[in-house]
Each structure stands twice: as C-alpha cells, then as structure tokens.
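Revision sheet: structure tokens.
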Amino acid sequence: MSVLDFMKQTSSIPDKYKTMTIPEMEERVRSIKEKMGSKLYIPCHHYQKDEVVQFADDTGDSLQLAQLARQNTDAQYIVFCGVHFMAETADILTSDDQVVMLPDLRAGCSMADMADLQQTERAWHTLQDVFGDTIVPLTYVNSTAAIKSFVGRHGGSCCTSSNAKKVLQWAFSQKERILFLPDQHLGRNTALDLGIPLEHMAVWDPIQNKLEYDGTVEDVRIILWKGHCSVHMNFTVQNIKDFRKKHPNASILVHPECTQEVVSQSDFAGSTNYIINMIEAAPAGSVWAIGTEMNLVSRLAQQHSDKTIYSLNPNMCPCLTMNRIDLPHLLWMLESIENDVILQQIVVASTVADEAQLALNRMLQLA
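Predicted:
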C-alpha cells in the first residue's frame, strides 16, 4: 500500500486537538498512560519527534522494536510511533488479540513503496530464467508485508541495517546469489564490507524491468533492487568535502543507506543504533557530522552537549513521512482507546502474515 493509499484511508483528526495547548495534551497522555498501565504499549522509532518520544515505553531502531514487539505479551493495545511497515511488522509478530494502531496513516516510507509485489514477482521470474535456482531473496525491513511474505515464501530473510552483514553471510551459505530489496545502497555497502567487489554486483531496474550489468552474468553474486532512501540520498560527497574544509579534525559518521561514495569517504558507517552508541562513547570535545535523519541528529546534539554535533547536510529536513506522527495524533489514538473505539488499526491478512513471519523469524534468529 502506497503513501497515497494511506492518506486516502486516514480519518480526519477532530478539531478539538487543533485547539488544545501542548501542556493540556501532555497531561492527558500522561493520565491515560497511567490509567491503562501495561495494557498500553507505545514503541517509538528513534526518528520520531521529541514531542512523541517523551511518552515512549521503548525507543529503538527497526530491529530493536521488532524484538520488543514480539516479547511484549501483556499489552492489549500497541500504539506504534513509527511508519506503516513497522506497524505491519508489529502486527505480524504479536498475537491476534493484540491491537496495533498507527496514529497517522500518512506515516509511510518512500523506500518501501519502491518495491511492490507485482514488480517483484515479475523480476523473480526473469531472474530465475537467467540464473536458475541459485538466488536467495533478502529484504530490508523497510518493505511492505507483501514483500516480506514473498521473501519468506522463497526461503529468504528480512534484515535491518544492524544485522544485514550477518543475514548476507547466512544467505550465501544457502545459495550462490542474493536478490536484495528494496534499498540498493544498504545492499551494496554491506556486500562491499563482506569483500564482494562492485564488479560482482548487478542492479535490477523494476521500472524498466531489466538487469543493469556490463559483465558476464555468471560473475554476478548480488542483485540490488533499484530503490533508495530519499533522506539518505541527500548526503553527498560535496557535503563531506565542505565539512572537512571547515572542521578538519572532525569525524564523519553516516548510515549505510547513504551512497557507496559517501560511505567510502566517511570515517564511520553503521545502523541507527551504531550511530547512537558511537556518539555516546565519543570523548568530550569531539566534533561530529552525522549523515542520517534530522530528528535523531538534533536529539543527539541536545543529549550530548559536551560534544559538537552537526548534520552532514546543513540544509537537511526531517523525513516527511517519518515526521508525520505528532502529539495531537498520539493523544487522539489514546483517547479513542479510552472510549473503546479502535481507529487506524493495522491488520496484516493471515495469508500474508504467515509467510512474512518466516522471513522475520530468520532475521530475529540471526540478530
């Protein structure tokens, strides 16, 4: 389901939330959380706004939140502060009597929308003709439940940026080649980290429905889906050059969803959790440029005032879809639960969820 589809399905937030003051809304959220206790669980991705993160029961990256969702058997209501594919994952991993809700259905992911099931099945058919039964499909968790289901059905696994290296190593123990969806950059950077050269990587273009590769197909080991993160694509080599000119003694730390050129010229690259841990361990007085989502960069700068932290791209804005959930939408969800009304529930059909869970289970076993 695309971001446009989310927007069409989204219920309009009542006007009363547009006129409430921030202290009024914060007090109501605190009151409902206290009243509901363990029946309510609010997981929150690191990229969310501070006004929402302050009420999180747990914060984490995609891998952490998937693990925590599976472990939480007490909560009757899970109000997921993230994006649609994360809420889908939570619904897949939790029991049928637990309700997963997304405060704003417009909170999608443009990367996830870059691979749909029809495109993937068409690509798989063509690639099987070219390479035979030599391919394991892997999908980044930033993908729809339908893509996870496809991957599970064909013996593959999900991965996150935290465990992508482990998952690729596992996949190569299964078969000779990997189809990596939907983010080409995470796939490319992880494969390079495993010692696979660029000349052994091909790109599948789902729009043109063709394989982009200049060499001999027998040499292909990684087939990268032509998708990307619209936020991380905005960090450039020129950003690195400009920053190093101003701060020659600083360190540059980026997410592996950035391009290979940016990752190769940075000092460090790793998952969201890796970035957080790196900054926490950094010495006082150190200077950093971070190439990832702006809400997280700003939060790290506030939390670590003994260090100087910049965004690698000075003109970066928060991710438009990751940034959708705000305090009014969170309160709206909580008050609806309080009034026994379920709004914007995320439900993955069992026919999709069963196979998607196979892919998610393999990821969690490798975590």
